[in-house]
Amino acid sequence: xxxxxxxxxxxxxxxxxxxxxxxxxxxxxxxxxxxxxxxxxxxxxxxxxxxxxxxxxxxxxxxxxxxxxxxxxxxxxxxxxxxxxxxxxxxxxxxxxxxxxxxxxxxxxxxxxxxxxxxxxxxxxxxxxxxxxxxxxxxxxxxxxxxxxxxxxxxxxxxxxxxxxxxxxxxxxxxxxxxxxxxxxxxxxxxxxxxxxxxxxxxxxxxxxxxxxxxxxxxxxxxxxxxxxxxxxxxxxxxxxxxxxxxxxxxxxxxxxxxxxxxxxxxxxxxxxxxxxxxxxxxxxxxxxxxxxx
Length: 294
Hints:
- This protein is mostly helical.
- 37% of the residues lie in helices and 7% in strands.
- A 3-stranded mixed β-sheet has the order 2-1-3. Strands 4-5 form a two-stranded antiparallel ribbon.
- Strand 1 (74-80) and strand 2 (86-92) form a beta hairpin.
- The chain is elongated.
- The relative contact order is 0.06.
């Protein structure tokens, strides 16, 4: 057998020979695994779509996925979010992962329950199986998270839920919560955070926490300006002129002389019309008009 290979500089996938030569897997399972490993990170496709977009039937694809799951190359994981919703994450490996993350090996003689390849539901609110801290102290000094921080964490998880590339752990979300709380204090809504965090993500996303932190800091909305108190004024009890405080004004109290009011609008209009008529008569007679006092 002579093997002919081409030198590729792009659009190629590197796979270990142990995957392609693993004779305990069917050729359908190995071909499906190679197809999945050639996809970019964040690719979303279920078994039904795999079967509908290929010449294999749904039964063959379902059997191949079961083979891959039992061999440790394929795993479906369900994650419970803080708001109660459950999201599904699919993991594909180029080396077998027989020990599932977050699980412990059964003790000798204990029977393992569940079928191989069945979805694993992880509860992010489950208490860690660690010994209690000395003197009953918690990791954060016995202090509970403020309500605004808990609200910020829940809001952040709801915003990034539609984007599978922005998956965070609780510790990472807690570190970003103060920035999200500042957004909420400045009047930002769920849509504002989504428009700032989700569009135009890099490919691939190496660190979701770093990308979110950068955007939360550099796209922070301006702080709200303090609202000016409404102007308050009072009227004089006698002449109804505006005064700084309730009572009577200084002229009505006899403390100062009252300033004569300006001429009314009708008087001003009459004087202006008289000046215009005088100027027109002077222009018609050719004489120079006399200076008229304003």
